[in-house]
Amino acid sequence: MKSPRERIIETTFQLFARQGYNSTGINQIISEAEVARASFYQYFKSKEDLCAEFLKVRHEYWFNELHNFLTKEKESKYKIIKAFDFLIYMNQKENFRGCSFLNILSEIPMDNVKILSVIQSHKADLRNYFLELLADDMLSDHIYMLFESSIIESQLFKSDELIEKTKRIVINLIP
Fold first, then answer.
1. What is the pLDDT of residues 54-79, one digit of tens each?
2. Which whole number is the average pLDDT over 93-115?
3. Is 64 exposed, middle or buried (0-12, 13-18, 19+ CB in 10 A)?
4. Is the whole model's pTM more than 0.85, yes or no?
5. Which among 97, 121, 129 has a CA at the least distance from the CA of 15?
6. What's the CA gap between 54 and 124, in Å, rounded?
7. Which are the contacts of 111, defined by CB distance < 8 A and separation ≥ 6?
């Protein structure tokens, strides 16, 4: 059986994915996670703290999934190309729910430093991931921007078509 904290995080993921950050209340999370109010507040002081923790857990999950998906690829070029296949895999697994970080970014005020800093950290790690693979600042940022736009466009149109096209572009970009 999952701990109350795990149930809260899991429920938060489902609710944020289904109805968004702003439309999800603490009472609903407590109810659907089947935890006592005291248990919720034992782990999280506020909805904002819960969101920041949820995003940290999501970050670890997402990067673990990415690394596991790419584990058989040895060359950097093929890791990058297959990273776009990873987006297709995640779209199928999560029904085109898009990026948890960008979904929440669109709902928070820009002065919410606590949540914003977790989102920025995730995106910086992804950007650095491509930089480490390519060791070319300009090219890696180009790939990063194509990757990010692929996530958004596939969510918007509920289609992997533009990811496939972007992957062909990336193949031609990488020496």
1. 999 999 999 999 999 999 999 999 99
2. 95
3. exposed
4. yes
5. 97
6. 18
7. none
